[in-house]
From TrEMBL:
SMART domains: HTH_MERR (SM00422). This is HTH-type transcriptional regulator CueR. Keywords: DNA-binding. It comes from Tepidimonas charontis. Residues 6-76 form the HTH merR-type domain.
């Protein structure tokens, strides 16, 4: 069932909370292929297929895939080939990313354990000195808060 619904770049930017510049970047990377209309082909008209591809790109980014990996996988689904090889490739990419994230989690856990050990040691030293430990607010270590578009919020 073909859909004749079309979208402007502003429609997609609003729907997915992206900048129009990001959408143009995805187009430059070959991830989206809008029709060009108007004088000199300056206006972009995105199809339902482009919208779906954009959703898949954003999902791939959340999974930690690079844009080139996302493009390769999405392009496979556009081809008339059998889905078996496509699914095997997808599983390989996911397995590699899972291993990478598991390694990162192990590194983070080791760092967290080290921090906890230092905190315990510092509290013990303060107790020996007869002083109350100060409970520090961890938020300064967290860095600036991010907006949905990934931009740092300005302090009021």
């Amino acid at each position: 069932m073909a859909s004749s619904t079309t979208y402007t770049i502003s429609d997609l930017a609003r729907e997915f909370d992206l900048t129009t510049r990001a959408i143009r970047f995805y187009e430059d990377m070959g991830l989206l292929q809008p029709r060009r209309t108007g004088p000199g082909g300056r206006s972009r008209v995105y199809s339902a297929r482009d919208r779906t591809r954009l959703k898949l790109v954003l999902r791939a980014k959340r999974l930690g895939l690079s844009l080139s990996e996302a493009k390769e996988l999405i392009d496979m689904y556009d081809s008339p080939r059998d889905t078996g090889p496509q699914l095997r490739k997808f599983l390989q990419v996911l397995a590699a990313h899972r291993r990478q994230i598991e390694d990162q989690m192990a590194d983070l856990q080791a760092t967290l354990d080290e921090i906890k050990a230092h905190e315990k040691e510092a509290r013990a030293l303060l107790a020996r000195l007869g002083e109350e430990p100060v409970v520090a607010d961890p938020s300064p270590l967290a860095g600036p808060q991010k907006t949905p578009r990934g931009r740092a919020e300005k302090a009021a």
